[in-house]
């Protein structure tokens, strides 16, 4: 299949660079990296600021490793689920209890399906709060699925981490191998050499995030997400560290419609649940109603955008939580600009 690409125009890249520079100059983020690219071509990287004050004057670049936060959902769990579906190991209609034998038949969440998890329509408890299970001896999947549902599965959209935690557990059990091993094999095959579950060694090439306690070192190579931290840094919803260069590599493979991942992306791109006017949820990805773009964000300040019709992608890596626990509002304009420019 011939892919028609629309290269990024210099003025578009300049606008993104200018906005990232404004954020770093204002102290909103220590620094960041943007990768703008089209399928089967070398990306353009735009960097600004520093990795973090404790890393001296080290500037971020394509190989700086950032906590990807919820990009884990697409870079790891969604991609592995696509492989398992292609191998006929799972179906979207499979109830999660069929993949996790420790879940009792009468558990309220046991009947939630793989498809409902991927579309965030599971009706599972929306608060992740794995800390509430401290001291409990039951398997985590049993604890999660035994909670009362807060919605009817398959109906309303509500972003829920617990579903992706369950799917990560299910994938590991299905293959009889740890999730981090499955993911590492996937990334190695794709050429994503800088992507891994943490913890990572503290170096100037790894971007720190938050300071949990006054006077204590910042999280630096250890996961920002509390629930993933309780699981040892490896979970289906968060825990992966990666680079702008690797996200560009991943995006390039996703935009190959003839490849396995590209086929899975095409299948996942149909909106299956309404988020808000103009936006729907496909399988894991947010999808614009016109079908021109798919994207996903990470809480720490990361994003990945795809425009299959034009072969464009954009990856954003920042440690935006460095100065503020929740910096999503400060990134909103840059993210809106990214979405606008990738389809323009």
UniProtKB/TrEMBL annotation:
<dbReference type="InterPro" id="IPR012338">
    <property type="entry name" value="Beta-lactam/transpept-like"/>
</dbReference>
<dbReference type="Pfam" id="PF00144">
    <property type="entry name" value="Beta-lactamase"/>
</dbReference>
<keyword id="KW-0378">Hydrolase</keyword>
<dbReference type="InterPro" id="IPR050789">
    <property type="entry name" value="Diverse_Enzym_Activities"/>
</dbReference>
<protein>
    <submittedName>
        <fullName>CubicO group peptidase (Beta-lactamase class C family)</fullName>
    </submittedName>
</protein>
<dbReference type="GO" id="GO:0016787">
    <property type="term" value="F:hydrolase activity"/>
</dbReference>
<dbReference type="InterPro" id="IPR001466">
    <property type="entry name" value="Beta-lactam-related"/>
</dbReference>
<feature type="domain" description="Beta-lactamase-related">
    <location>
        <begin position="32"/>
        <end position="333"/>
    </location>
</feature>
């Amino acid at each position: 299949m011939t892919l028609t690409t629309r290269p990024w125009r210099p003025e578009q890249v300049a606008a993104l660079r200018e906005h990232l520079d404004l954020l770093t100059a204002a102290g909103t983020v220590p620094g960041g990296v943007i990768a703008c690219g089209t399928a089967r071509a070398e990306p353009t990287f735009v960097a600004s600021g520093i990795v973090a004050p404790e890393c001296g004057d080290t500037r971020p670049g394509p190989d700086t490793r950032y906590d990807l936060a919820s990009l884990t959902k697409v870079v790891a769990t969604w991609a592995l689920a696509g492989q398992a579906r292609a191998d006929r190991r799972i179906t979207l209609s499979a109830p999660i209890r069929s993949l996790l034998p420790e879940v009792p038949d009468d558990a309220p969440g046991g009947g939630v399906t793989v498809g409902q998890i991927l579309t965030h329509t599971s009706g599972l408890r929306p608060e992740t709060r794995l800390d509430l299970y401290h001291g409990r001896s039951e398997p985590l999947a049993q604890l999660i699925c035994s909670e009362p549902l807060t919605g009817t599965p398959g109906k309303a959209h509500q972003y829920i981490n617990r579903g992706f935690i369950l799917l990560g557990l299910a994938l590991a059990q299905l293959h009889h191998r740890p999730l981090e091993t499955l993911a590492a094999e996937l990334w190695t095959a794709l050429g994503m050499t800088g992507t891994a579950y943490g913890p990572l060694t503290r170096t100037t090439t790894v971007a720190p995030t938050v300071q949990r306690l006054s006077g204590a070192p910042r999280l630096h190579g250890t996961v920002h997400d509390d629930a993933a931290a309780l699981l040892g840094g490896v979970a289906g919803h968060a825990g992966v560290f990666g680079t702008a260069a690797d996200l560009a590599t991943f995006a390039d493979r996703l935009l190959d419609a003839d490849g396995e991942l590209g086929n899975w992306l095409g299948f996942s791109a149909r909106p299956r649940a309404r988020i808000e006017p103009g936006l729907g949820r496909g399988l894991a990805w947010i999808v614009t109603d016109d079908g021109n773009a798919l994207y996903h964000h990470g809480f720490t300040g990361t994003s990945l955008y795809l425009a299959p019709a034009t072969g464009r992608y954009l990856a954003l890596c920042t440690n935006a939580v460095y100065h503020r626990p929740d910096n999503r509002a400060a990134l909103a304009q840059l993210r809106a600009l990214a979405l606008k420019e990738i389809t323009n």
